[in-house]
Amino acid sequence: MNTSQVREQAFAMPLTNPSFPRPPYRFYNREYIIISYRTDMDALRAVVPEPLEVTEPIVKYEFIRMPDSTGFGDYTESGQVIPVSYKGVSGSYVHSMYLDDDAPINGGREIWGFPKKLATPKITHEGDVIVGTLHYGSQLCASASMGYKHRILDTAATAQLAKAMAAPSFLLKIIPHVDGTPRILELVQYQLEDIQIKGAWASPAALQLYQHVIADVARLPVIEVVSAMHFVTDLTLGMGKVVHDYLKDSA
User: Fold this and answer.
1) Could you tell me if residue 16 is inside a domain?
2) pTM for the complete prediction?
3) Dihedrals phi, psi of 186, to nearest 5 degrees
4) Domain count of the chain?
5) Which CATH number covers residue 151?
6) Would residue 119 count as lying in a domain?
7) Does the annotation count 149 as an active-site position?
8) What is the pLDDT of residues 184-233, one digit of tens each?
9) Looking at 116, 122, 149, 198, which residue is catalytic?
10) Is 137 left (phi over 0), alpha (psi -120 to 50) or beta?
11) By three-state DSSP, how is residue 75 classified?
12) pLDDT in tens, 47-98
């Protein structure tokens, strides 16, 4: 394979058989459990990188079931998203993500810079309760319970949810050089597109986070659960753009 062929064919690793397909990626019947909770403001400031600004002491803990994803198949995800502001624009910073499928871990990390790790998140429906759990190996790292569809969100609330989902989200993309120093260190912005919410509900919820050395979700402790939503949607994961290069730009 000559140099021009390498350049034409190169998309992701390995060269001749990439571990994930080319985007875009469309998700069907994506099921979300999002529990918003109040946490310690100093703990938030310690993990959110400048030039993003923390706007309130809130974390959104997410469990996401993805039964039908183009290119990726069927998998589940769990993690923490933090409301932030970037140059006066409201958005979210994706702080942590734990998945049970190799391809979206590789694709998410290499293309956008999603902070993905391999673990075992689950969503189960147990009678009148929805249960979300995150295990890393044998250890329970997060446990959530939510009432099953207590209140249907009205048209205005559903429209507000869709608007919030379409807001900018931010990632810290880090790719090391062969000598171990950062080769890429960028703040990446992306957005969800073509969002079609098929149903949305609010219910009471509870959330517990447990100390773990690798899946350190308890770094942002739960002080108080503020709200919880359960919804199902189709959407497309939009491509990203670099908004800040830490190796070139000053904060």
Assistant:
1) no
2) 0.95
3) -135, 150
4) 1
5) 2.40.400.10
6) yes
7) no
8) 999 999 999 999 999 999 999 999 999 999 999 999 999 999 999 999 99
9) 116
10) left
11) strand
12) 999 999 999 999 999 999 999 999 999 999 999 999 999 999 999 999 999 9
